[in-house]
Request: fold
Amino acid sequence: MPPDDQKPPQQPVAQGRLGAAFRGLTATIPGIALCLVITLVSLGLQNVEERALAHPYVEALVIAILLGMAVRTFWRPSERWLVGIAFSAKQLLEIAVTLLGASISFAAIAASGPLLLVAIAGTVIVTLCVSFGVSRALGLSKKLSILIACGNSICGNSAIAAVAPVIGADGDDIASSISFTAVLGVLMVLGLPLLIPLLKLSATQYGILAGLTVYAVPQVLAATVPAGVVSTQIGTLVKLVRVLMLGPVVVGLSLFASTQRAGAASKTGAKKMSPFKLVPWFIIGFLLLAGLRSLQLIPDAATAPVTRTAALLTVVSMAALGLGVDVRVLANVGGKVTAAVTLSLMLLLAMSIALVHAFT
Reply:
């Protein structure tokens, strides 16, 4: 055994690791700060939009990614900025997905009634499958096809942002799907009320139709308020139940992605994956918070702040993704993405109209 004066110094090593961790943390500050500035500008523009039009037709999430892309077009961030931008795009988005679980209650899903649940679940599942098939037939990648399918079938940009880290989608795919989905989402809000006289829809029928087809909850309000209180209430309820489908879809995609990774690992002779790698940590956190919410262990008073925090982190992440997007990539896939989103939306609209007439 070596004498005491020959033992390796442990304290300097520990201090070195602590110093390295601190330097790594401080290195993220410039990039995170830049994303926060874009986020604040985006939220301010959404606020102006709400004051002028009563509802946000283009959400801060979409504005952030477009502003980020605009900045990236005229300025290429150096390494000093890239560390924080990458952290915002990945880790902050994963935290946002985790916090999203606090807004989902399995009890609320069950209380909506079996008929409504089956109708909405069936619509979401069919639209998911067909949208994915259409996107693939148009030559889009698997990951981009999944993002488009989830965005059209569930809740637009929020679904795309939640699914992206699960399937490992890159910034270009996320920007493409969000950008083109956002445009059609606004057109849906503006054009859907025209169907009331054309199809002679009642207030109840129109509320169900809006809840099944419009992407975001605020957009449902914008589309249904002109039709009356009944349409607004029913549309919001149907939309919220449709949003709750995001939970099972995210978990299912997570398990599918982990199975794919495990299969690839076995073929290459790699070591067996641990259970913790099969299901990403943020999905476990998502399910945990959803379970706590369902058991009413997360009070109603805490749900709103947690949901707002998740929304804020998502906007920050979208700003970061926009900063990493090459606009030329969007130009290359723009026509195909537009076609995929449009065809998927037409399918969803047709199914929803048939459902409205069948059940009311």
Remarks:
- Residues 27-359 form one domain.
- Residues 80 and 307 are 31 Å apart (CA to CA).
- The chain has one domain: 27-359.
- Confidence is low (pLDDT under 50) at residues 268-278.
